Structures are given as C-alpha cells and as structure tokens.
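We modelled the chain as a single entity of 207 amino acids. Its sequence is:
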Amino acid sequence: YRKQVENISAYDYLGDVQVWDIADGAGETIFAATDNGLSVFDGVRWSLYVPPHNPSVRSIAYDGEEATLWAGTGNQLGMFRKDDYGNWAYHTLYTIAEGQEPVTVRRVVDDGVNVWFQTASMLYLHRKKSGSTEMMLSSPELGLVCHASGKTYIQDGRPLVRISDTEGPMLTPVTVPGSVIDLISRPEGLIIITGEKGLFVLGDIGR
C-alpha cells in the first residue's frame, strides 16, 4: 500500500512560495500562512484572505472550540473568524508598533484558556474570557514559546521557565544547553528538543 503524495504549488494555494506556518481546522480545512495572506483549503478549493493593514501572515493557531484562527500578522496580533457569508474575516486584537517596520510574530500558542503571541523580543498574552491583550515579557533573548502537558514554557536566554497569565514563572529556571525549538510530553517527563544539542528530558526532579 502506497500513500499518494500531492504537490501543491503556490499557484494552487494562491499564496507566496514561502509558507511560514500551517494549521489544521475543522473537517478537512487547512490553513497556510504566507506573505500574501492566509490561504484556506475547505476540502474542495483554496481561497486567499488578506488582512487589510498588511498582507503578511507569519504564525497561526486554530481554536476548534471558538472556531477561531489566531494569527500573528504585520505589526498586529489578530484573529480570523467566519463571517455571515462563510468567508474568514480578519479582526485586530492588538497593534504592536504603529508606523514602524513590521514586527514578525514568530509563534502563536493556544493553551485553551489564553493565547500567547511571541516576537523576537516580546511575549504577549490574549485572555479569551475577557478579550484583553497585553505585553507580558520583554527580553532580547527570548526563545520559542512552547506548550506541553497543559503548561506553557518559554526560554529566556538559556533558562527554561514555565509561565502563566497571573502568577509569573512557576518553575525553577532550568538551564538548557541549546535553543529550545519544541517540547513533547512523555510519561518519563518533558522531552526538550534543542536546535544544536539534541534531546533532553526534564523529569520530576527538574533536570
């Protein structure tokens, strides 16, 4: 048995050749973030949706419960939701820097209660319940924000810390010898994947 592999070109998905992020939606829906906007596949055809302030969409995360696609766009934190006509309409949540060079949102993480938006040096929090958005952390050495086992982590320099919306760092900082690019939850502990030094396991004893 051989699975079929389909090559989808930029001409097909209507976006730029560089796809920055991909997310699964409801049913067969696929979202692709490119510099030309948000490409959406509904199971039959592709459509392109462009934020009015800046076409570039760099990072996305889909929330199935709220049928919302959280998005990091040029200088803004935002979201896409379907309008009355079934189109994915863009809504601004927070403007990072009005009138300056676009700030790239490197990653969007939905932890179920809050949404975290991360740039190269700042971490923003959007609270779903209240609808408020604010900057939570500013540091020139921020690594990628990651979510695993119901908890959210970020690397600030070399230390890896667990964060929350109200209590600040909750985990004694653990120094990781490399840049953290992802986390995986396993029974033996939290697997830390780095870009330069391989894999590490963070167990109950914190190392």
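As a brief sanity check on the tokenised model: The chain is about 0% helix and 50% strand. The chain has a mean pLDDT of 86.
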